[in-house]
Recover the amino acids of this structure.
């Protein structure tokens, strides 16, 4: 049975059975039908969205996978944890796309029309899917609150372990790399093809800072040993500086450090190059690895710690005193007493110093200021990281709610849009889904970054995307439930054509069945009278003259005479359209479609004209548009006179024949 036949059967049951009993039967069958349509599409679109998100997420970590010799088991864990993390993000997009396609298909096949003809509103058709989407929203929250934190923790632990494998491929350029135990390695440049490292600096601290060694080399190569337990560092053209203070130097001269110049040097570094799982202690403290309950519990501890740090810095700042440099002995006691008693200020004390003492005071003050500035910058950076940690926890807690609500919001955007545009398949729905998701992503990502950096409040940054899309969902649902033509392309084409003053051509065709013939004689007399009235109007109104802007925008007025002439002419055209004469029919298509008020006022309502006149750019546009309509009306009136003459001449020639 076809789907259209299914709805016809419903209508027949509605006629035969009682209204109440039939309503229950109809809604039950219809719910099952809609759920099947949506469910199959949702499963397909979910896997598509999940695949796209995983590929986009994979590009961020592709360097961690290539060339590491990872086993299939490790790669399977990597993709498994990645998929679990991205499920809450794939659900809203899948709901949006599947609802768009399902209701677009039903609208394109006129099934929505049959549903409404059966007395079922669009919201009643949405009812089973609303229940399903609410359940999906709950599932999304469960994944974010229970599955997501554990998957995020395992994913980050696995990613950190992958970074520590084969470190010769992980050493960055231009910064110190501390992935090797008791060693900091700096590389100015590296060649991936040959594996050569250039501009190498190595800091080794085998026995602590007292036995620190600094190694400089022009180039080098880092390789793993066969058992993957050590790293072999081959250096070329370098120097070795090593602190000797902790070594036993008895019986020899006291040497603070030793220096060695070498052309080739091999160093063995302790490092387990095999794949070992990293420690999860530092990873579990991140907000992404916590559930809602743990985040709420930890926020109080984080705030208490941040407040204690702030109070400690504040108390320390109150105890800080800036001292003057020491002056001569005979003045030091007097100056200290004066400063303590408050009988003198800094300027007077500075004036009593000699030039050399003033220079020393300024140098010491500058040194103190630099030290305090550096200390304040360090404290500011630390407190900023503490505040960022608190904001991150609050953002993650709100994100679990907003991402779940986005499933419901995207449904009320996709389903009404599908019912409005009535286009199924993967063409228009995919384009609209991508546009909606891009808008959502821009607001969501921008709000998250601004809230994380402290530029916006957390609640505003995380709720901005929801607050923007919720009115859009309500608007589309309202328009779809009331059979709105908000996406009717012809409507917008007509509006744009009217604003730009584009002409609408007349299209009349000869009728196959004519009930009454036209009154040729009466129509000819009326056309001659209309021609005289048009000539009289043209002489009385100079359409080439620009109108007064004050009268146009701020006073009432309308050209009733043109409207009357147009009504009379349209009545004659309607009567003559019943003709069998091809010549008359062709001449009727030459009549222009008159704009009866556009040459006098931009809008029919006075308040719109006033607003347009006050807003200068729009006022200039509509004033020039009105002048254009005046010129067009002048040409149309000439065309009417010419066409009237041709039709009257044709009617008279018919009467003679």
């Amino acid at each position: 049975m076809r789907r259209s036949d299914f709805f016809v059967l419903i209508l027949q049951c509605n006629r035969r059975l009682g209204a109440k009993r039939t309503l229950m039967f109809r809604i039950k069958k219809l719910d099952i039908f809609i759920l099947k349509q949506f469910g199959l599409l949702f499963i397909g679109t979910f896997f598509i969205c999940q695949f796209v998100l995983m590929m986009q997420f994979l590009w961020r970590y592709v360097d961690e996978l290539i060339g590491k010799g990872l086993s299939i088991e490790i790669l399977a864990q990597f993709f498994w944890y990645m998929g679990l993390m991205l499920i809450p993000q794939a659900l809203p997009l899948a709901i949006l796309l599947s609802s768009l396609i399902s209701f677009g298909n039903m609208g394109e096949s006129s099934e929505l029309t049959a549903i409404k003809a059966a007395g079922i509103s669009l919201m009643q058709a949405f009812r089973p899917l609303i229940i399903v989407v609410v359940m999906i929203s709950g599932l999304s929250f469960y994944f974010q609150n229970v599955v997501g934190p554990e998957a995020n923790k395992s994913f980050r632990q696995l990613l950190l372990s992958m970074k520590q494998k084969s470190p010769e491929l992980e050493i960055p350029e231009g910064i110190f790399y501390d992935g090797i135990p008791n060693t900091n390695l700096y590389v100015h440049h590296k060649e991936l093809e040959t594996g050569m490292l250039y501009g190498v600096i190595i800091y080794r601290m085998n026995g602590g800072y007292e036995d620190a060694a600094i190694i400089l080399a022009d180039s080098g190569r880092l390789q793993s040993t066969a058992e993957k337990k050590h790293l072999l560092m081959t250096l070329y053209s370098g120097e070795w500086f090593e602190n000797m203070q902790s070594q036993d130097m008895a019986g020899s001269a006291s040497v603070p450090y030793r220096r060695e110049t070498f052309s080739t040097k091999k160093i063995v570094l302790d490092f387990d190059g095999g794949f070992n799982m990293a420690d999860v202690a530092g990873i579990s403290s991140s907000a992404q690895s916590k559930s809602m309950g743990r985040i709420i519990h930890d926020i109080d501890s984080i705030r208490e710690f941040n407040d204690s740090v702030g109070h400690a810095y504040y108390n320390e700042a109150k105890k800080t005193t800036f001292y003057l440099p020491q002056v001569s002995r005979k003045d030091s006691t007097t100056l200290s007493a004066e400063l303590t008693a408050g009988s003198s200020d800094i300027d007077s004390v500075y004036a009593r110093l000699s030039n050399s003492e003033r220079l020393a005071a300024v140098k010491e003050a500058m040194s103190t200021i630099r030290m305090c500035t550096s200390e304040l910058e360090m404290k500011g950076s630390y407190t900023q990281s503490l505040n960022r940690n608190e904001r991150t926890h609050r953002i993650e807690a709100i994100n679990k709610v907003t991402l779940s609500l986005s499933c419901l919001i995207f449904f009320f955007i996709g389903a009404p849009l599908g019912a409005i545009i009535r286009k199924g398949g993967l063409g228009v729905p995919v384009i609209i889904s991508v546009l909606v998701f891009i808008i959502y992503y821009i607001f969501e990502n921008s709000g998250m970054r601004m809230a994380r950096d402290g530029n916006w409040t957390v609640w505003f940054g995380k709720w901005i995307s929801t607050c923007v899309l919720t009115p859009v969902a309500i608007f589309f649902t309202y328009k779809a439930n009331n059979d709105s033509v908000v996406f009717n392309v012809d409507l917008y084409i007509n509006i744009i054509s009217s604003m730009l003053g584009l002409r609408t051509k007349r299209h009349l065709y000869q009728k196959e069945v004519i009930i009454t013939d036209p009154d040729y004689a009466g129509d000819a007399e009326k056309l001659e009278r209309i021609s005289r009235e048009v000539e009289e109007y043209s002489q009385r109104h100079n359409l080439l003259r620009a109108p007064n802007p004050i009268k146009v925008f701020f006073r009432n007025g309308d050209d009733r005479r043109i409207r009357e002439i147009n009504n009379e002419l349209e009545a004659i055209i309607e009567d003559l359209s019943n003709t069998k004469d091809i010549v008359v029919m062709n001449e009727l298509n030459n009549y222009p479609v008159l704009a009866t008020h556009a040459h006098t006022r931009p809008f029919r309502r006075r308040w719109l004209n006033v607003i347009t006149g006050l807003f200068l750019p729009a006022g200039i546009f509509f004033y020039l548009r009105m002048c254009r309509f005046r010129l067009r009306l002048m040409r149309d009136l000439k065309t009417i006179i010419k066409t009237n003459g041709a039709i009257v001449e044709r009617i008279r020639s018919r009467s003679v024949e």
Remarks:
- The longest helix spans residues 355-421.
- The two ends are 63 Å apart (CA to CA).
- The longest strand covers residues 230-243.
- The beta strands are 176-177, 183-190, 196-204, 213-224, 230-243, 257-270.
